[in-house]
Amino acid sequence: MFQLTDIDREDFRNLLNEIARTYMPFGKYGRTAVPPLGMPIYDLPVEYLFWFKERGFPKGRLGELMAIVCEVKGVGMDSLFDPIRQARGGRVTFHPKRKKVHRFPDSDS
Q1: Which end of the chain is least crowded, N or C, by CB within 10 Å?
Q2: In this structure, how many other beta carbons lie within 10 angstroms of the beta carbon of residue 18?
Q3: Which tens digits make up the pLDDT trace of 62-81?
Q4: Angle at CA 61, nearest 5°, toward 38 and 34?
């Protein structure tokens, strides 16, 4: 993997564009949980990214991009993704759906 310090401006811009277009395709933040595309990888919680860092990122380009996002967020530079968020309408948040529980008063009396 390359170091971010070894990248020129145009390559960095292309990398950010690729990160901006990449969504989590599976798991807790995948397409079924955050329809229709899944959570953008730049909005994944840092704890989730660290979980992958400990156990291994997915193979391929998705894993490489997630590792880069993890490093950026890990050093406190999440604000790097703010222009992308602004252009796309804000931060994508995840609120798991809760099961609705209907409680009726006992009708024994």
Answers
A1: C
A2: 14
A3: 999 999 999 999 999 999 99
A4: 5
> pLDDT (tens digit, 9 = 90+) per residue, 27-61?
999 998 888 899 999 999 999 999 999 999 999 99
What is d(CA 97, CA 82) in angstroms, rounded to the nearest whole number? 27
What is the Cα gyration radius of the chain? 18
29 burial class (0-12, 13-18, 19+ CB within 10 angstroms)?
A: buried
pTM of the model: 0.78
Could you tell me the residue range of the domain that residue 44 belongs to?
4-87
Structural domain contains residue 92: no
- Please state, in angstroms and rounded to a whole number, the distance separating the CA atoms of residues 49 and 104: 42
